[in-house]
């Protein structure tokens, strides 16, 4: 494929940024990848692994001359980074981000972006429970959604060019309103993560059930929760702090609903439980039909010989 | 391997029983597999797939002459089935079950078991979100735990013989007290399932977020919940109705804990969230080290080429 951006600067080089770098290289989409990370270990890893062509001690240096700047730091660090890079952005550059929350990132970043630079907020619905520069791989975005939430009145050309890049990484691109994005993500990602963290925490606190039994007998249900609850703590702290309203809304609904089922258990209302458990099957069917997950039993984790 | 039981009767022929049949055949562990299922479709499937040598219209007929009887029906159906087969059990036979709850099954089954027949309650910690006779496969139990909760004063020889069979299926066998079993399972399986059902139900009920968006953007967190929430509704209804006390206990702890995190989000207490999310990572590490799950990112669901 043809080069889409001459020079890309990655601010933050964890799972998402390093995967972008691997994929951009593989498909020949950029001429030069510059990188910045706060930790010296991450900067050294980026050079050692080779997904960055150059790394810098500061974000301000890394963005110089970049046609595309990707903010791939935790949501809580966006404002500071944006303020730091703003005076160094190349006229005509595009800035995007990969944060899981969009309204808070827009509030943090947009005020710093100078005239002549376009900010196109984005969020790849991709990732694994692993984090750091060594966890990245080129196929992470294949067949996954990458949501863009362009600002009102933003120029169409920079959005279209970014879209070209993301599609070339294998992603499917959709545009959403930032507020709606945050609500949808609270349902499909943020609240499920909080619940998984909580359930794993409960198990950790149980005194009558020893930790070794929890681990030993974790098959069937619980181990799926532990995978989710192994995700990056800093990233998730920032998600909950910055998507507070939507998460609390969905948590409220969740608790109400849980109490209804809890009451059905207490009252021995088998019909209500059965009806509920039957309806939820349909959603799974839809996800598989939409190609968003495998129908292989247990995610194909079990070898069927 | 050598034949361990001449004749085995499977009462119920869903995922677990059909997987046992496939595995017993593959390893030559039994000479004849008789089967019973309530539905004519399942009986026909067992013969068509060929995992049963003979099928019967009633459980009473199926158990005749069997050295091992496996009760593989939902927990709520155990009492009726036990009452029906009791007069037809061969002296010296062993009866086991595969129910996810042990105290309720013992109460339902043990009173019916005649003198000279041994009842050894069991529970394989294995399964997938699929159900029915076509969902079975021979390797389902490999490297999975199979928990036995022998009754007080039960003879050691029948327990040892059943253990031999289960180990020959590839399972690791542990013996537990039934009450402790039910508590451990409430933590590692029953409560996580209820929570997953609830979260999927919440998404289903959301009006502002359309169902198509929930499905479309389900990657990262939510789709894992939908897999769990696609499990057999009848089986799970019975689990919650019969493991009521332990499930309500763990649900109470879960809700308390969730409220603590919810409050931390509302108050903006990032330190508390970060500390909590860091502790839960350790449990995941333990599960992977114990060989109970894969460390492949996203369960290996993503191709890394």
Description:
Two copies of one chain form a homodimer. In chain A, the strands form two sheets. In chain A, strands 3-2-1-4-5-6 form a six-stranded parallel sheet, with helices on both faces. A three-stranded mixed sheet of chain A has the order 7-8-9, covered by helices on one side. Chain A is α/β, with parallel strands linked by helices. Chain A is globular and about 65 Å long. The first copy, chain A, is built from twelve helices and nine strands. In chain A, strand 8 (145-148), helix 6 (156-168) and strand 9 (172-175) form a beta-alpha-beta unit. The model of chain A has no long low-confidence stretch (mean pLDDT 92). In chain A, helix 7 (178-205) packs across helix 11 (244-267). In chain A, 49% of the residues lie in helices and 13% in strands. Chain A has two domains: 5-176, NAD(P)-binding Rossmann-like Domain (Rossmann fold, 3-Layer(aba) Sandwich); 180-268, 6-phosphogluconate dehydrogenase C-terminal fold (Orthogonal Bundle), CATH 1.10.3660.10. The first copy, chain A, has helices spanning 15-26, 40-49, 59-62, 78-85, 103-109, 156-168, 178-205, 211-216, 222-228, 233-242, 244-267, 270-289; strands spanning 5-11, 30-36, 54-56, 68-71, 94-97, 118-120, 122-124, 145-148, 172-175. Chains A and B meet through helix 7, helix 8, helix 9, helix 10 and helix 11 of A and helix 7, helix 8, helix 9, helix 10 and helix 11 of B. Chains A, B: It catalyses: prephenate + NAD(+) = 3-(4-hydroxyphenyl)pyruvate + CO2 + NADH.
